[in-house]
Design a protein that fits this description.
The structure is a single chain. The protein has 314 residues and is an alpha/beta fold. The chain has 2 domains: 187 residues, FAD/NAD(P)-binding domain (3-Layer(bba) Sandwich), CATH 3.50.50.60; 120 residues, FAD/NAD(P)-binding domain. Helix content is 26%, strand content 29%. The strands form 5 sheets. Strands 1, 2, 5, 6, 7, 8 and 19 form a 7-stranded mixed sheet that branches. Strands 10-17-11-12-13 form a 5-stranded parallel sheet, with helices on one face. It has a 3-stranded antiparallel sheet with strand order 14-15-16. A hairpin with a 5-residue loop joins strand 6 and strand 7. The protein starts with a strand and ends with a helix.
Length: 314
């Protein structure tokens, strides 16, 4: 049975930043990468909004760089999936790949969140070639072009209005005859002249060629008729699902499954467990905010372990 000082679950910007800070503090952190080593950024070709990269950087390369930086200070990176946890006692118990148990003095949860997709094959086919789940991340690449956004909530309204400032036209695809977004957000959409709302409409297929997305085939829910519109970008705004299933019954979460933390910190309801990055952030969901909270998590863990040590001494 392995015993570690600080166990970090997840390997995105939050997990690796936590590892860098924890390692430099002499806490000998161990990272378990999870099922998608490097997190969501490994599915992104170009990252242009992370400070320090004037020419942008390839998403997977950025995560390799972060891993190397964490390892340089002594972080041990293990490829494995945390399949269950038991935070009812101390030290904290974590099971890897359903067989190996690790005991940890402190745990930093950095499992992230996954964008929800429609489930049509063309989404995967054109991923990073016109299909995106983050307008703030990728909208700049479509400036001066027509794009489509699918969704009806606040996220869809925000992404549409954001894209309307960059793109010539935004097609908002709404499944019903009304939006779920707050009244003020709906008003912003309706008052933006270059946003066209397609009511009672679903995405039948995303169209494209070797150059990427070229259009969308829409299905009218009422008539069953299909038609095509020309767009170069297709943005999904139907929500995110935090990767928190293994923590149910262990950590306090909100109604959407995001881990709740004490305001102004990364502390959870369990002593010694800290949540960082998108797993606890339903608002910003950016690489830079995830990295910042990863730093906070490591500092909180360091303070916790120092207090534990002081208790033992006394």
């Amino acid at each position: 049975m392995e015993k570690v000082n600080v166990l970090i679950i997840g390997s995105g910007p939050a997990g690796y930043t936590a590892a860098i800070y924890a390692a430099r503090a002499g806490l000998t952190p161990v990272v378990y990468t999870g099922g998608q080593p490097g997190g969501q950024l490994t599915t992104t070709n170009d990252v242009e909004n992370f400070p320090g990269y004037p020419d942008g950087i390839n998403g997977p390369q950025m995560m390799i760089d972060l891993q190397k930086q964490a390892e340089r200070f002594g972080t041990k990176v293990n490829y494995g999936l945390v399949t269950s946890v038991d935070f009812s006692g101390y030290p904290l118990k974590v099971v890897i790949d359903e067989k190996d148990t690790v005991l940890a003095e402190a745990v930093i949860v950095a499992t992230g969140a996954s964008a929800k997709y429609l489930g049509i094959p063309s989404e995967e086919k054109f991923a990073n070639r016109g299909v995106s789940a983050c307008a703030v991340c990728d909208g700049y690449f479509y400036r001066g072009k027509e794009v489509a956004v699918v969704g009806a909530g606040d996220s869809a309204a925000e992404e549409s209005t954001y894209l309307s400032k960059l793109c010539t036209k935004v097609h908002l695809i709404v499944r019903r005859d009304e939006m779920r977004a707050s009244k003020i957000m709906q008003q912003r959409v309706l008052n933006t002249p270059n946003i066209e709302i397609h009511w009672n409409t679903e995405t039948d297929e995303i169209l494209g060629d070797e150059s990427g997305v070229t259009g969308v085939r829409l299905l009218d829910n009422k008539t069953g008729n299909k038609r095509e519109i020309s767009v170069r970008g297709f943005f999904l705004a139907i929500g995110h699902k935090p990767n928190t299933d293994i923590f149910k019954g262990q950590l306090t979460m909100d109604e959407a499954g995001y881990v709740k933390v004490v305001s102004g910190s990364t502390r959870t309801n369990v002593e010694g467990v800290f949540a960082v990055g998108d797993v606890a952030d339903r608002v910003y969901r950016q690489a830079i905010t995830a990295a910042g909270s990863g730093c906070m998590g490591a500092l909180d863990a360091e303070k916790f372990l120092a207090a534990k040590e002081a208790e033992v001494v006394h």
